[in-house]
Amino acid sequence: MNIVLLGAPGAGKGTQAARIQEKYHLTHISTGDMFRANIKGGTEIGKLAKSYIDAGKLVPDGVTCEIVKDSLKKTDGGYILDGFPRNLFQAQELDKFADIDLCLNLEVDEALLLDRICGRRMCVCGASYHVSTLNGKDVCEKCGKPLYQRDDDNPQTVKARLTTYENQTAPLKDFYLAAGKLLTVDCGTKNPDEVFESVCAELGKFNK
Ligand code: AP5
Ligand code: MG
User: Fold this and answer.
1) What is the Å distance from ligand 1's center to 156 Cα?
2) Which of 20, 98, 106, 110 has its CA 20 to 30 Å from the CA of residue 187?
3) Contact 48/63 with Cβ under 8 angstroms?
């Protein structure tokens, strides 16, 4: 099963991808994570990506499609693409080098997103938290390492990311609807476990 995970910044793509990966034994491929690893490693891709990410804009399509193509070559079995494609061009390119079964769209009220993202705290192990549930703790519950905030998780950049999503990424819902591949989960105010139940119910409708 090859899944495109679609959703606004802060919709819970990373949170749900971790659960889907474990239950369905899929490889989780996140373009955002790959760019952040490149920035940390000081690579040329990282240097290019940083200015776009800090501005809440999309990294150019050429380099983005190439890193996805490369990681799919190294992947055995099914996968979840988290954060790719993010515009019509990327979706059309993806169809040239991959066989996507479905697009899982996480629908979340925009009013919830700013607080979710600005309150997010990350760990290098990949765990993600929200300050409201940390009770003042600043280390990871899973591995004990110090938590940090992503550079692009500030109100100004988040507003730009949301605008970019509305203008360039949200139209992909129609693209996958027309292809008969769109499954939407209305997340409402459900917590991550409740959202995952709905995700599993949707995926259960897909037999392959
Ligand atoms: P990326 O890293 O993909 O960021 P994003 O799309 O903005 O999404 P986030 O990672 O912020 O949110 P998420 O949906 O994963 O939510 P999460 O599960 O963490 O991309 C970053 C940048 O890279 C882009 O802006 C762009 O510049 C560049 N880029 C990436 N892909 C690209 C592409 N294809 N083309 C060009 N450029 C690209 O959850 C968020 C918070 O909410 C957490 O605190 C979590 O604990 C909490 N939470 C999750 N679910 C719930 C729930 N149900 N209830 C309450 N809280 C919840
Ligand atoms: Mg994410």
Assistant:
1) 15
2) 98
3) yes
Token digits of residue 180 = 């008969």
Instruction: In whole angstroms, give the CA distance from residue 35 to residue 27.
Output: 17
Distance (angstroms) between ligand 1 centre and the Cα of 55 equals 15
Q: Is 116 labeled as catalytic in the residue annotation? A: no
- pLDDT tens for residues 11-63? 999 999 999 999 999 999 999 999 999 999 999 999 999 999 999 999 999 99
d(CA 29, CA 37): 12
Active site residue 121: no
For the question of whether the overall pTM of this predicted structure is more than 0.90, the answer is: yes
**DSSP conformational letter for 98:** -
Which pair of tokens denotes residue 124?
């290098």
pLDDT band for position 207 (cuts 50, 70, 90):
low
For tokens 């991808």, what's the residue? 17
pLDDT tens for 76-100 read 999 999 999 999 999 999 999 999 9
Whether 150 is catalytic: yes
CB of residue 128 inside a 6 A radius of ligand 1 = yes
CA of residue 17 to ligand 1 center, whole Å: 11
Q: Residue written as tokens 């940090």?
A: 148
